[in-house]
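Running this now, will post back.
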Amino acid sequence: MNAKVLSLITLAILLLSLHFYIPNVFAYVSTPIQSGNFPTAAPVANYATMTRYDAAGGDTNNPYFFPGIESHSTGGDEFIYHLKITVTGIKPNGEPISGLEFCDLAWLDSPHDQGSSWYNVLTALYYAISDLVPYGASELLKHGLQSPESGVGWDATSAWAEWWWDGSIFTRTINKGLQFRFALHCDPDLHGFYTLSIQYYVQTIWESGSGSYTPDYEQYVYDTVTYYFGSPTLSISASFGGTTNPAPETYTHGYGTPVTVTAIAFTHYVFDYWLLDGVECGSDPTITVTMDADHNLIANFKWVNNQPYTPSTPSGPTSGYRNVWYTYSTSTTDPDGDDIQYEFEFTGPIPTVSFTTGWYASGQTGSVTVMWETTDPLGTYYVRVRAQDVYGAWSGWSSSLQVIITGGGGCPTLFVWDGIDYIEEGVLDIHAESDITVQHEIQNTLALENGVYNLQLRELDEFTSHIDQVKLYAVDYQGEWHLCPLTYAYHNEFGKVTWRLFFDDEKRVDLTPTQTIDLKFLPSIAYKQTAYFIFEINGYNQKPHPL
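Update: finished.
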């Protein structure tokens, strides 16, 4: 190479404004020209500008784009030798775009209209294809003065435009510009991203000796542009346990449209997470998807069972006596609306005892009726309650209600002989200031033994009952009452008191705590004709009624 003065190389890559018409179903995305700076140690100073314009025009499958290259050397013995623009691409299915699919190959006769400062623009070449013919070309025009030729062409995987210096001293120049129009015709049945790669190539030569030229500098710079063809779809689905708004279905949206979807859980389910295109992407029930491609969105739900809320403190008597029935109530709700049952727990001087109710609707009051028996210790008891839903989830325990039990109720308790033993029948409630009459239907078996019916009165409390008269009726199957004669009444301290209890008068028998009275009655009708028995007592006990 002949010696010569070399100036420093100045290089710049400029991406000018991009203009592109976006139809309703076609969207465009571009990225800047990739850096490919010319080497600063090149032997010849050179300046080059690469541009791309995306012009309005075409239709939904015919986007125009105008890559261009402009180059000039520093003059002297340095000249432009070769310019070339090559376009390749990949379809949404991964296949290459053939050169024929860049079907509108054309030189521009007036590149100035695109806004670039061109110098010696080629004006001799015009359209390379006669009319716009999708997916093909009717004519390929090559133009040049010698081989290799300037012109346009394509093959199976690319399309290109290039200019060569023809070797004539008259066309030798230090400034040259080349702009080329491509129109990508997308496959109408293949929606998605079409990615195009544009390669810009510049080569210079210098005059190394009289009439002798040597290539001494070349550079490649690359540009990428991406088009989305079609209307992307959003396929929404939901796992068992919920739905979405909008409802699960496949929807079509314009490219770039933000779409908001909300997950809605059914009873006993909560939203868990979103799955967008197979990737977990958050647990917020509301998500916004940008329609930059086809997307698949799944709302995932999981089953949960919330325990019932803690019931209210049981309501009911806070004091009472043995052998008296008392009712305690409570209520609560279940967050899921499930049916619930209540467990009442009684603690105190005896081991803990629990009673479980039947099923109630959520929010309905549940209750249990209990009695402290003769053998239960007197003292302070505590009642608390919890709730369980139909799936087995328990609430917490309620606060406790304190209940004080002070004995048998201040009234005599009736026992009946069932043929083996005396069975407790219940308290005869004669709480009053003076005589009252109380009738009690006997629930247990009353055996006829040795020709008589045996009953017993016991005072199980610390208060005295004053008893004036007792009677026993046998009721037949027609409902007729038949009086059974009292033949025997024996007080465990006073002895026989039959005649005192036979009449309704002022002669009473006192039954003090721990005392008993044994009673015997004769049958009034045959035993097999007896449907049930009624025991009647007249008297009073002045202890205040526990209720």
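Confidence is low (pLDDT under 50) at residues 1-47, 55-60, 106-148. More later if anyone needs it.
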